[in-house]
Amino acid sequence: MTWFERFQPLLILLSVALGLGLSLIEETAAIADRWILPLLAVMLYAAFLSISLRHFGSAFNDYRVTVASLAINFLWTPLLTWGLGALFFPDAPDLRVGLLMLLVTPCTDWYLVFTGIAKGNVGLATALLPLNFVLQMGLLPVYLAVFAQSLVGLNLWVLGGRVVTVLFVPLTLALLSRVFLVRLKGSAWLAQHLPKVASVQLLCLNLAIAAIFAAEGATLLQRPNLLLRLLLPISLFFVINFFLAQQVGRALRLAYPDVVCLTCTTLARNSPVALAVAAAAFSDRPLIALTLVIGPLLELPIMALVTQILLRLHPQTSRDC
């Protein structure tokens, strides 16, 4: 784990504080707003560069965990998220859309770290990564069309164009870069330098967060209770899906490492990808992006707690670690 990864929760807080401080300076908002999308584009390029689709089909070697995780992530979670949004934000469509975008995108990097900490099946988690990645890229616009169009008057053609621009352009460049670098330098060289790429990714993410809060700090300062409003629905998502993963693992008679893999892949979320789409598609609705920035402030401590709970639920594993 790199220095950036280890201190990511603290860095997010510092980025938020920096952005709020800059928002108090006159004319900063307009300057910061112009930097959000370029920073997120570089962040996505770095993130996509780290993802290899070579083992795309290997997740189906253990079809029980794969099918269970796909069903929870891409069928159950969108319905759960829609219900949480309707329950907690009936009169706040922007918060409902932000919550939706945050929770329907499974993580494609951090959950490997948490799976390893909890002594889970990291190999299987790695095999699931490209599958989760491809499905969320294709399904996020579908979820927005189904669940968010009536809330924010979404133009599907505009959404499709912006998703292509903000997601598929960095993805295409990253895939071409992987092919070029592997042929020029070799796969071992690329693997050796990927931690530096991860640091660039997290640096750009934190700079983008600072830019978002610098541009929209006034909106947040007018709603100081936003974090508290999001705390309960996001926490409920983690509690419900945690217990669901445990019950599914028990029903399928999965070994402990596989239960950890299933739990982490159905809990950890991919807010950077959703944030990039929100910044491009909902630039006139800053609360959506702010929701996606606040999400990791809650998610990372909760995931750290989840790993400890998993270890405590299996005393033998806890003694061995």
Could you walk me through the main structural features you see in this protein, from its secondary elements to its overall organization?
Helix content is 83%, strand content 0%. By secondary structure, it is mostly helical.
Given the structure, what is the number of helices? 14
Radius of gyration: 19 Å
Global morphology? globular
Give me the count of strands: 0
Average of per-residue pLDDT values: 84
Order of helices and strands: HHHHHHHHHHHHHH
- Specify the CATH class: Mainly Alpha
Strand proportion: under 5%
Instruction: Note the gap between the termini.
Output: 17 Å
For the sheet with most strands, the description reads: none
- Low-confidence region ranges: 317-321
- Architecture, according to CATH? Up-down Bundle
What CATH calls the topology is: Na+/H+ antiporter like fold
Concise account of the structure shown:
This protein has 321 residues and is an all-alpha fold. The protein contains 14 helices and no strands. The longest helix is centred in the middle third of the chain and has 35 residues, at 187-221.
